[in-house]
């Protein structure tokens, strides 16, 4: 009877450890998702804005960012939270010339997702 009790305690301890590991993995994944990225893309043949001018606009409005990185035909700005990226989008929509599209960068990079982003910023055309 003592060995069954010991086996049951080991099983319970093992399940507790597994549960703790699952919770830690879930929390880590939740923290990683909080990061948000904006993409600035030029329309037509406009030149890409330089990172210095973007950082100046953001700093002047008290918006902190993690990084500004050129990638392909876009300038990616990474923020620690979606609130910061939303504030940055509002600032950049008003301060950048209308030849740029400022949109949240999705996990997906297929053409359909970019078309929906462009549709959301149709006020910039014309």
Task: Provide an overview of this structure.
- This protein has a 4-stranded antiparallel beta sheet, covered by helices on one side.
- The chain contains 4 helices and 4 strands.
- By secondary structure, the chain is α+β, with helices and mostly antiparallel strands.
- It is rod-shaped, with a radius of gyration of 23 Å.
- Residues 120-126 have low confidence and may be disordered.
Report the radius of gyration as a whole number of Å: 23 Å
Q: In percent, how much strand structure appears in the residues?
A: 15-25%
- Strand line-up in the sheet with most strands: 2-3-1-4
Unreliable runs: 120-126
Number of helices: 4
Order of helices and strands: HEHEEHEH
Task: Report helical residue fraction.
Answer: 40-55%
Structural class: alpha+beta
Largest sheet: 4 strands, antiparallel
**For the terminal residues, how far apart are their CA atoms?**
82 Å
Number of strands: 4
> Which whole number gives the mean pLDDT?
80
Shape: rod-shaped
State the gist of this model:
With 126 residues, this protein is α+β, with helices and mostly antiparallel strands. 52% of the residues lie in helices and 18% in strands. Strands 2-3-1-4 form a four-stranded antiparallel beta sheet, with helices on one face.
């Amino acid at each position: 009877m003592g060995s069954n009790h010991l086996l049951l305690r080991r099983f319970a301890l093992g399940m507790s450890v597994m549960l703790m590991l699952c919770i830690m993995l879930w929390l880590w994944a939740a923290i990683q998702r909080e990061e948000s990225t904006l993409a600035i893309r030029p329309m037509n043949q406009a030149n890409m804005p330089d990172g210095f001018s973007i950082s100046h606009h953001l700093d002047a409005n008290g918006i902190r960012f993690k990084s500004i990185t050129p990638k392909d035909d876009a300038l990616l700005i990474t923020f620690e939270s979606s609130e910061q990226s939303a504030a940055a989008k509002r600032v950049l929509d008003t301060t950048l010339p209308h030849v740029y599209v400022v949109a949240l960068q999705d996990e997906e990079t297929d053409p359909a997702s970019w078309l929906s982003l462009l549709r959301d910023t149709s006020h910039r055309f014309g």
